[in-house]
Write a structure and sequence with these properties.
Radius of gyration: 22 Å
Number of helices: 14
Strand content: 15-25%
Distance between the termini: 52 Å
Oligomer: single chain
Structural class: alpha/beta
Number of strands: 20
Helix content: 25-40%
Bound molecules: zinc ion
Strand order of the largest sheet: 10-20-11-19-12-18-17-14-13
Shape: globular
């Protein structure tokens, strides 16, 4: 039995996004549990599809005793403020030091955190963890599939293990896999040889879905390479919205450097297959109107305003296209606008009032949507998610409402007060909308929605409408990215 310190600090930073993650963003959690210190972190993550939950369960089953340090997550956004980083990281390190001696450390990290004061947030966090425990205590971390993995991160730890699914239905499972690697190191006293390679092209997040090619095939090949070699491998397509040197894809693994090298070849060869068809909002709505039916709706992914990629979920471009074309049995969610949600609650269910919806982030090309709306249903934003990705997450999204626009009575909009990606059907059911009965379902999400919505969808269209989470990374103004990286598959080279 070993004594293992547990911690976590998840943030996915879109350095081009409109708002930063301050300490209150980690208190709110954005769908995840709010910031936790010490023992309460175990209860906060228990039973949810969260890496730490999977790791904790696996380590306990292996007979280890665990010490909680700090665990925190916030909605993706621009930089983590220096204050939030120092408070959370500071608390983690202080609790880790007072727990010493420990035999090992497990950390639940995202791997794409940019802090106001550190471009490589996890690199800095891991440097402090390593400094606290010394060179001999094994440290293993699980990472998001959207991690931008740096050489510093890789060199500071004994193991990094990333998700293999996008939508991330395997978060808890990945935590458990990281736990088994840590257990193996503790039992054998040996650290398997690691290898790490970055790739030299970026790809937009809609094309990173593991349900579709090329990622489906890449992860299948990863599994075959593991079976043949006995290695533990990871492929991170990265989060192509963080302007720093190490942004982008990586492959890494332990136990068989040759297998890591082969995986690099597989990802390199797949470059052209990452190109993806995107639709503008009017075209997408036209197609959805002609093909969507109650029972098998067309699902529109408003990818560039995805709260899971730094959007604030408040742009109105796709909603306006639905209204302009008088779509029927159409619903858009979740539009994140706390003032309008509050106004709906003040007006009351069944009343009609003038609203000025969204447009709060002042994204170029976007503006609020003014008009008369009927308040069809209200909700308190408290419910438990049931879809494969957010399964077991206890949501607290603040006042919610379902509105029907007078300008196009077939169009409804679901409002929430706190940012969260529309990746679970319960977000709609909570305010009286059964997604399957709609003809068109428009979602503030890039890919995660596919886990719960693709099974009911006739087809999925990825829509390019105003928002800060650009689907084509070549459209960002990169300043710190390392030179020589192609900004999209087979695209222009960053010089
Ligand atoms: Zn991710």
């Amino acid at each position: 039995m070993a004594r293992i310190a547990i911690g976590g600090f998840q943030h996915e930073t879109n350095t081009f996004a409109p708002s930063k993650a301050d300490y209150s963003a980690f208190e709110a959690g954005g769908g995840w549990p709010g910031v936790q210190y010490g023992e309460p972190l175990f209860g906060a993550v228990e039973g949810a599809n969260i890496p730490a939950a999977g790791a904790i369960q696996a380590l306990r089953a292996l007979g280890h005793s665990l010490v909680g340090t700090a665990w925190a997550a916030a909605s993706p956004s621009a930089h983590v403020t220096a204050d939030a980083f120092e408070r959370i990281c500071g608390e983690m390190i202080q609790r880790l030091k007072s727990a010493l001696p420990v035999d090992g450390v497990y950390l639940d990290l995202h791997g794409a955190m940019v802090v106001d004061t550190y471009d490589d947030g996890e690199g800095e966090l891991l440097r402090r963890v390593r400094e606290a425990v010394g060179p001999r205590v094994p440290v293993v971390a699980s990472l998001d599939l959207h991690a931008n993995v740096t050489r510093a991160m890789f060199d500071l730890v004994d193991g990094l293990v990333a998700y293999r699914t996008y939508p991330h239905v395997d978060m808890a499972e990945t935590g458990a896999r990281a736990a088994r690697l840590l257990d193996q190191i503790l039992r054998t006293g040996k650290r398997p040889a690691g290898a790490f390679h970055q790739l030299d092209y970026l790809t937009g997040i809609p094309s990173q879905c593991s349900f579709i090619q090329p990622c489906k095939g890449i992860y299948e090949e990863l599994g075959r390479l593991e079976d043949k070699s006995g290695a533990m491998l990871s492929f991170t397509p990265g989060f192509p919205m963080a302007d720093f040197g190490d942004c982008g894809m990586a492959v890494f693994g332990y136990g068989a450097p040759d297998a890591v090298e082969r995986l690099r070849g597989v990802v390199s060869d797949a470059e052209k297959d990452f190109a993806m068809e995107l639709h503008d909002a009017p075209d997408a709505v036209r197609r959805a109107k002609s093909r969507g039916e109650a029972g098998t709706p067309v699902v529109l992914a408003d990818t560039q305003d995805n709260p899971g990629a730094g959007g604030n979920g408040d742009t109105t471009g796709l909603l306006k296209a639905l209204i302009q074309q008088q779509a029927e049995e159409a619903v858009l969610g979740m539009l994140i606008d706390s003032a309008s949600a509050r106004r709906a609650h003040e007006a009351g269910q069944g009343t009609t009032a003038v609203f000025n919806l969204g447009g709060l982030s002042r994204i170029p090309g976007d503006a609020p949507l003014a008009g008369e709306f009927t308040v069809e249903r209200l909700g308190d934003g408290r419910f438990t998610s049931t879809g494969p990705m957010f399964k077991g997450f206890r949501m607290t999204l603040g006042p919610m409402a379902q509105l029907r626009t007078r300008a196009a009575p077939g169009v409804r909009v679901v409002l929430a007060s706190r940012k969260c990606q529309a990746a679970d059907q319960e977000m709609f059911r909570h305010v009286g909308v059964e997604p399957r009965r709609s003809r068109i379902v428009a979602l503030k999400s890039s890919v995660h929605f596919r886990a719960d919505f693709e099974p009911i969808a006739r087809e999925v269209l990825v829509v390019k409408s105003p928002g800060p989470a650009l689907a084509d990374p070549a459209e960002f103004k990169w300043t710190k990215l390392r030179k020589g990286v192609r900004l999209r598959p087979l695209g222009p080279v960053h010089a």
